[in-house]
Design goal:
The longest helix has 17 residues. Strand 14 and strand 15 form a beta hairpin. This protein folds into two domains: 256 residues, Rossmann fold (3-Layer(aba) Sandwich); 173 residues, Jelly Rolls (Sandwich), CATH 2.60.120.260. It is globular, with a radius of gyration of 22 Å. With 443 residues, it is of the alpha/beta class. Helix 3 crosses helix 4. It contains seven helices and 18 strands.
């Protein structure tokens, strides 16, 4: 991780280092056109928002043309409004290169929203030189059992992984957004973002939250409790610009795609390759449902099939796997990260994916799929996503022959039977030692 000091130390006093801004800066210095992709919520949507202002700062520095495409879904009162970018707006005309900004900002949105199938146009853009994640305000309702912020980190790690899969090697940057003006409701999100940046190699952090705290959350920076006004947006933009100026130009910087990072899977049958019985070996159903091979839905041609899990009208149906014996022994007393590659079906409830683990002397239930495509009862989004539980410290006194460490994957959990029987597709499940999940995928 490369941390950025937000300009609190003038750039002239810092030693430039490679970070996510380095490829962008190298191209602009060379007079080459650049592209920036931003996944953001309502705090970035306004005409004078932080990324409008940041793009203008870059344009002024390099006498560049600045062209902005903004996601158009919010421009109509209909929830099924245009899932595309609006016509481009030229923010600046210059004699230098062209900076093209794709602002995928959706008020009320979460980090995974732009990865859903029905928003596929968000990623149908030229390969960017920089991807920025500016999310968190709509993702603060996750639970933190025992102070474990894994569910909050999952809301970001999954989308970051999918973005990197789309554009392997592209530099990725994450901001911490801004604190809430009147209360501390954003604090755990802030900490979760810091945790993600610490665990993820090559993910550049710009701590915009700290810039507001340094000014004691001055009311002159806010429109309301959450949204910065023009001055607050300018503070975010200046933080980004200071980090840009502190970056050494260089085209070699890349952010690793964690789904492609190699690892040894601590789960014996995480790809369901051993399916000699009615169910994959080592896996069971917690209630009457069905799990079958789906040869027509796979994440990539590298897989022959995925597992299609259907609730069959029963909200209690779940795919269940206990870690016992050698699997448990490989995890007990260690820090483990889990990742599940799944595909949600439109019309079905969002999956409820749980890790049950004893950590810190207490058994905890950790939600691995919280708030990735929306709330627990939401339907309407479909697409591939990673559910994660990362940096989980498993107690050393856990009995390897017990039943206290397991995964439970519900395709349609809720307070009533689901109205749809569309399946949840599961491609692979991986457990690896360390603070960062790894997907072990190839092209």
């Amino acid at each position: 991780m490369i941390g950025v000091s937000l300009g609190l130390v003038p750039p002239s006093r810092t030693v430039p280092s490679l970070n996510a801004f380095s490829p962008l800066r190298a191209r602009l210095i060379a007079g080459q056109n650049t592209t920036i992709f931003i996944n953001a919520d309502s705090t970035a949507y306004a005409d004078s928002g932080p990324f409008h202002q940041f793009a203008m700062m870059l344009g002024d520095l390099h006498n560049a043309n600045v062209v902005l495409y903004r996601w158009a879904e919010w421009q109509t009162s209909a929830p099924t409004g245009p899932k595309a970018y609006a016509d481009p707006v030229r923010l600046r005309t210059g004699a230098g290169p062209t900076i093209t900004v794709y602002l995928a900002a959706l008020p009320g949105g979460m980090a995974g929203f732009m990865l859903a199938d029905h928003r596929a146009n968000a990623l149908k853009i030229p390969r960017p030189d920089l991807c920025i994640m500016h999310q968190g305000h709509n993702m603060q309702s996750f639970e933190a059992p025992g102070g474990i912020l894994s569910s909050g980190r999952a809301t970001l790690l999954g989308p970051l992984g999918m973005t990197a899969w789309r554009w392997p090697g592209v530099a990725q940057l994450i901001t911490t957004q801004n604190p809430w003006r009147h209360d501390n409701g954003y604090d755990k999100v802030y900490q979760a973002i810091l945790d993600v940046a610490r665990a993820h190699p090559g993910l550049t952090l710009v701590d915009t939250h700290a810039a507001f705290m340094a000014r004691n959350k001055d009311v002159a920076l806010y429109r309301d409790n959450i949204h910065p006004n023009d001055a607050g947006a300018g503070l975010v933009a200046q933080s980004l610009f200071s980090a840009f100026l502190a970056a050494a130009p260089g085209t070699s910087f890349e952010t690793p795609c964690w789904p492609k990072l190699p690892t040894t899977n601590l789960i014996a049958n995480g790809d369901f390759t051993d399916w000699s019985g009615l169910l994959p070996a080592g896996w069971g159903l917690s209630a009457s449902g069905s799990a079958v091979k789906a040869t027509d839905v796979t994440f990539s041609p590298a897989f022959a099939y995925s597992l299609a899990l259907r609730a069959n009208g029963n909200q209690a149906v779940g795919l269940l796997h206990y870690f016992r014996g050698p699997e448990a022994a490989a995890m007990i007393g260690k820090t483990i990260s889990f990742a599940i590659l799944y595909r949600h079906s439109e019309g079905q409830r969002l999956p409820f994916i749980m890790l049950i683990v004893k950590s810190g002397g207490i058994s905890h239930t950790i939600n691995m799929s919280a708030l990735q495509f929306g709330g627990a009862e939401a339907a309407g989004s479909s697409g591939w996503m990673w559910a994660t539980a990362n940096e989980i410290k498993i107690d050393p006194d856990l009995n390897p022959d017990g039943f206290d460490l397991y995964l439970h994957i519900y395709p349609a959990f809720g307070i009533s039977p689901p109205s749809s029987d569309e399946p949840l597709y599961i491609q692979r499940i991986i457990a690896t030692e360390g603070p960062l999940p790894k997907g072990n995928l190839s092209d």
